[in-house]
Prior knowledge:
Blueprint: H1 2-17, H2 23-34, H3 37-66, H4 71-96, H5 110-123, H6 127-140, H7 150-171, H8 173-177, H9 180-207
Helix pairs in contact: 1-7, 2-3, 2-7, 3-5, 3-6, 3-7, 4-6, 4-9
Amino acid sequence: MTGVFHLIFGLVIGFVGVIPPGLLNLTAAKISVKQNRKAAIIFALGASFVVIGQVYIGVFFSKLLNDNPETLLLLEQFAIIAFIGLSIFFFIRASLDSGTPEVKEINRSAAKLVAQGIILSGLNIFPIPFYIGFSSFLAGKGLFIFTYPTAHLFIIGASCGTFLMLLAYIKYVKKFAFDSDTFARKINFILSGLTLLIAIFTVIRIYG
């Protein structure tokens, strides 16, 4: 049952993390419009594959904190810093966003689509601190186990969650593209508030 919870945690976090319009999801949407859904799915598979490595790195650094003698307190203090940083990042992104991210040119072949997804996803380092923060937060509350297979189920879930969100962009591209600038700002403000609330809640729990 613990493994199932880790899979669900990863799925939800991976899904939520790709909601704001960005290079990956808008490129997937563009491929869906300019080429077809199958090509966009191939691109999304390549992008989601890289997420496995990114989440693994995030969990690895979180585990380094977990191995510290002052495990619980250190994890929660790090999570506070991470979530405040994420809150500021989302707020600034929402405040300064004056247009949709530049979408890269599309390659036609399946191999090039996969490679493009891998490259664009690999260039995006934001998921690493994102997953460090969330895995540290969950571990601090005793909800995350770093050993096999639970941690690996979390990693797989995060990759699947990312893929599902990309599929949502691919399938509902017209609806999302209707007013993508406003949508991006609203989502980023919501994520900024959510991560700030988690940070405040953790501060109150530790020092309250």
